[in-house]
Amino acid sequence: MADKTTGELRTVKIGDLTSAPDIYDDFKMPGELQGEAVHITGSQIKYYAVAAGVQASEVFTASVKTAATAATAAKEAASASAQAASASAGAASASAQKASASAENAAASAEKALIIQNAKNLLDNTDFTNPVNQRRQFVYPSGVAGYTIDRWRTSAGLQLEVMSDRIRLTNSTSSLYGFIQYLPEGRALKPGDVVTIVCETIEGMGSLAQSVIHSGAVTVPESGYTSGPYLKSNTVRARVYAPSDTMPYGGAVVMLAADATIDIKWIALYEGGYTRSTLPPYQPKGYAAELAECQRYFRVLNSLAVRQKVFLMDGYAESETTAVATLDLPIAMRALPTVSWTWQPSTPLEMLEASDEILYAGQANVQSITAREDTSDLDRLRLDITLENKTVNGVTFSFKRGNRYEFFFDTEGLANPEVGRLYLDANL
Fold first, then answer.
1. Ramachandran bin of 175, using left for φ above 0, alpha for ψ from -120 to 50, beta for the remaining angles
2. H helices within 316-378, ranges in order?
């Protein structure tokens, strides 16, 4: 500071001065401004303080506003984040629920697929919307017990009709009669086995017709047959037979009450006990698979109702009245079959000798055709053919011993050819 004084003040050291009790407007404080000694009055100091306070207040207010704006923005951001988090949590929860539902559906589908996979239908030819029917009859009348559509037989009082999408069983008697399938060795029932029999029937007529599923689980008895279950009130019941002399491996029967009719679309006999809620859906094998299975038990070799020659087999003559022929089959028979035939003289069994000599053997002069016991391969049958040693229309039919022959159904050159059939029957 310049060594000058202002007003009446003497020169002293600042540290020796006493503190001012207050600042009055006429208070004077020494100072230096650009090398010159000056003083600042109390009123100036107050003015500067007020101005500085206003500025500080404005700065503070601005800071407060900025802070409030920042706080509002932070609050809004936090709210938005919370909403986003809530939405994400909701989406995650929905995804979790969806995943859980998908897992449950997958588990249910897997369980259903396992049920279907494990559900073994023990019966053959069960799709009656398109059954294997090698005998080619559309009505199997009552009065004769025996086989009808493949693998199924009826007792004497039952009539079976093959319709476009079902079969119809009619019992016009006053007794109980059945529709039966015997089980083979590989699917034999044992006492104590639990099985479930199921069928789909058509109830009602015309536009009121509807499909109904009937089912019931039973335990195979030690002997005889079960008394149920009832598939349709007291009209239709099922029976499961234990193995016996008649049915060596057991069987399944649909019994029809007196004076009753039932239309059936399909039937199944499942291993194991099923309820209505656990029944597997019916899975038809398909016609080709069913035909291949049925032809192990029964096969029909047909001529065609057209003018042509159909080769059957070839062989050689053992005598004038007997020959041995070999019949090749695409599917092996279940057992050695019995052989029968139906043909008329207008559709003869032609025997062509190696020397081209032709013998015509119709119904009149073929005495028998039998499968030989020494047959080793059931898809390559050895058949004995025996002729009646008699003369028909002045012609004596006979073989030439040792000569080879081919056997045909021959409708070639006939004006009205009929169908000839050779039946191989290995049914139980």
1. beta
2. none
What dotted CATH number matches 139-287?
A: 2.60.120
Whether the CA torsion 178, 184, 187, 193 is positive or negative: it is positive
Burial of 365 (C-beta count, 10 Å sphere; 0-12/13-18/19+) = buried
Amino acid (1-letter code) at residue 327:
L
pLDDT in tens, 316-341: 999 988 999 999 999 999 999 999 98
Q: How far is CA 213 from CA 12, 253, 256, in A?
A: 126, 17, 17
Q: 70 to each of 62, 63, 277, 356, 385, how far by Cα in Å?
A: 12, 10, 65, 116, 112
Alpha-carbon 216 to chain mean position: 21
Cβ-based neighbours of 227, under 8 Å, separated by 6 or more: 237, 239
pLDDT in tens, 40-72: 776 766 666 655 554 555 655 565 566 567 667
CA distances from 333 to 10, 39, 42, 124, 337 (A): 147, 138, 134, 15, 7
pLDDT per residue over 3-37, tens digit each? 555 455 556 665 666 666 666 677 677 777 777 77
Structure tokens at 379: 């898809």
Task: With 0.90 as the threshold, say if the pTM is over it.
Answer: no
**CA–CA distance, 204 with 184 (Å, rounded to integer):** 35
C-alpha–C-alpha distance, residues 35 and 1, integer Å: 8
Angstrom distance (rounded) from CA 54 to CA 422? 126
Give the count of beta carbons closer than 10 Å to the beta carbon of residue 214. Answer: 21
> Of the candidates 385, 402, 381, which has an alpha carbon nearest to the alpha carbon of residue 318?
402
Q: Low-confidence residues of the chain, pLDDT below 70?
A: 1-24, 27, 42, 44-68, 70-71, 74, 78, 92, 99, 101, 103-117, 303-309, 343-348, 354-364, 389-393, 395, 410-419
Radius of gyration of the chain (CA): 53
Query: What are the boundaries of each domain within the chain?
Result: 1-118, 139-287, 298-425
